[in-house]
């Protein structure tokens, strides 16, 4: 009888592109079967923090809170250069002008919020953050409900159509700050499952990603059915932006980037990280 593993990832095109073959059953991981949950990034972070997922896509920020119970896979994540969240306003202004203002964030434990918090710390300002589901943020900025907002996912490609202004690219800010690519999200797996299961899932994710790369048409219907933004050009741009070489393997530079971000998160949130390792071995 097959054993059930609970897997959570987002409905965003980069995740559905990577995980389609696994979700469809095209990749065999016997003796295991997957029970799949698709959810918003902050909901996934919460599911992992409460131990409800065996394998889960989490924000790199949220990973700092679960490292005692989870370890990160080398495949399936979102990382790169020029791919970070955007800080948007209605009118052009400086970061200092946001001091004391209301700023929407897509979740307290998202990497987007960590980057924004680090930027505010370096600028010496304090803001009132307002948590929202990511697709509510741009309308809130446009209506004046908040003075600014940190936007992730498709918002990177569609904000100008709502008349919004980019104050900062937080990914570029991180690259200048750290000299490293920005780790947006990683795939975490419970340490209690053991190294063999972790290696099996890591390999399966790579095979799933490879199948989508070889024949994107196979995953297209699945991707489009779950996408927030239905414009096909935006969906393709999303995949091309957030599915990178790091999605196949984080590599040494990726490990360094995640380790740096985890330490920044631990300092910001007063956490004690385990000694390591943070990633499974090959």
Automatic annotation (TrEMBL):
<keyword id="KW-0456">Lyase</keyword>
<feature type="binding site">
    <location>
        <begin position="111"/>
        <end position="112"/>
    </location>
    <ligand>
        <name>substrate</name>
    </ligand>
</feature>
<dbReference type="InterPro" id="IPR003773">
    <property type="entry name" value="Menaquinone_biosynth"/>
</dbReference>
<dbReference type="InterPro" id="IPR030869">
    <property type="entry name" value="MqnD"/>
</dbReference>
<dbReference type="GO" id="GO:0016830">
    <property type="term" value="F:carbon-carbon lyase activity"/>
</dbReference>
<dbReference type="GO" id="GO:0009234">
    <property type="term" value="P:menaquinone biosynthetic process"/>
</dbReference>
<feature type="active site" description="Proton acceptor">
    <location>
        <position position="153"/>
    </location>
</feature>
<feature type="binding site">
    <location>
        <begin position="57"/>
        <end position="59"/>
    </location>
    <ligand>
        <name>substrate</name>
    </ligand>
</feature>
<comment type="function">
    <text>Catalyzes the conversion of cyclic dehypoxanthine futalosine (cyclic DHFL) into 1,4-dihydroxy-6-naphthoate, a step in the biosynthesis of menaquinone (MK, vitamin K2).</text>
</comment>
<protein>
    <recommendedName>
        <fullName>1,4-dihydroxy-6-naphtoate synthase</fullName>
        <ecNumber>4.1.99.29</ecNumber>
    </recommendedName>
</protein>
<comment type="pathway">
    <text>Quinol/quinone metabolism; menaquinone biosynthesis.</text>
</comment>
<comment type="similarity">
    <text>Belongs to the MqnA/MqnD family. MqnD subfamily.</text>
</comment>
<dbReference type="Pfam" id="PF02621">
    <property type="entry name" value="VitK2_biosynth"/>
</dbReference>
<keyword id="KW-0474">Menaquinone biosynthesis</keyword>
């Amino acid at each position: 009888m097959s054993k059930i593993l609970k897997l959570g990832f987002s409905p965003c095109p980069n995740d559905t592109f990577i995980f389609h073959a696994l979700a469809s059953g095209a990749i065999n991981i016997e003796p295991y079967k997957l029970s799949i949950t698709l959810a918003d990034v902050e909901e996934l972070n919460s599911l992992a923090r409460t131990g409800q997922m065996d394998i889960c896509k989490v924000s790199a920020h949220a990973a700092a809170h679960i490292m005692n119970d989870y370890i990160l896979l080398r495949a399936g994540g979102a990382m790169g250069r020029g791919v970070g969240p955007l800080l948007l306003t209605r009118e052009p202004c400086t970061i200092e002008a946001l001091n004391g203002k209301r700023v929407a964030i897509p979740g307290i434990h998202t990497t987007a919020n960590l980057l924004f918090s680090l930027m505010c710390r370096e600028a010496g300002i304090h803001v009132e953050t307002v948590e929202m589901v990511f697709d509510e943020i741009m309308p809130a900025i446009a209506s004046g409900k908040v003075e600014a907002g940190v936007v992730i996912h498709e918002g990177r490609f569609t904000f100008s159509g709502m008349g919004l202004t980019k104050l900062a690219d937080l990914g570029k800010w991180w690259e200048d700050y750290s000299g490293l690519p920005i780790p947006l999200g990683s795939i975490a797996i419970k340490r209690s499952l053991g190294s063999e299961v972790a290696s099996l899932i890591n390999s399966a994710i790579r095979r799933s990603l490879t199948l989508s790369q070889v024949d994107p048409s196979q995953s297209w219907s699945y991707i489009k059915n779950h996408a927030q933004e239905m414009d096909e050009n935006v969906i393709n741009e999303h995949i091309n932006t957030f599915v990178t070489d790091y999605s196949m393997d984080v590599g040494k530079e990726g490990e360094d980037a995640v380790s740096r971000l985890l330490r920044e998160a631990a300092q910001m949130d007063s956490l004690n990280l385990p000694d390591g390792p943070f990633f499974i071995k090959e």
